[in-house]
Design brief:
mainly alpha; about 70 residues; single chain; 3-ketoacyl-CoA thiolase (Fatty oxidation complex beta subunit); elongated; Thiolase-like; about 25% helix
């Protein structure tokens, strides 16, 4: 890795933890959607050029496994 940069930021939609609209959507599927969206918003960025991406949990609650 030669250079570390923040290219963009994006978040998943909000929903209730139990019984909400995303209750049957896996975290991996939401993450894949985020990555596709980021690449679409930044056409000069090639997916093959990415070494890592960081995902975080900002508001942990009972729906996050606690």
């Amino acid at each position: 890795m030669e250079q570390v940069v923040i290219v963009d930021a994006i978040r998943t939609p909000m929903g209730r933890s139990k019984g909400g609209a995303f209750r049957n959507v896996r975290a991996e599927d939401l993450s894949a959607h985020l990555m596709r969206s980021l690449l679409a918003r930044n056409p000069a960025l090639e997916a093959a050029a990415l070494d890592d991406n960081l995902l975080g949990l900002c508001a942990a609650d009972a729906g996050a496994g606690f």
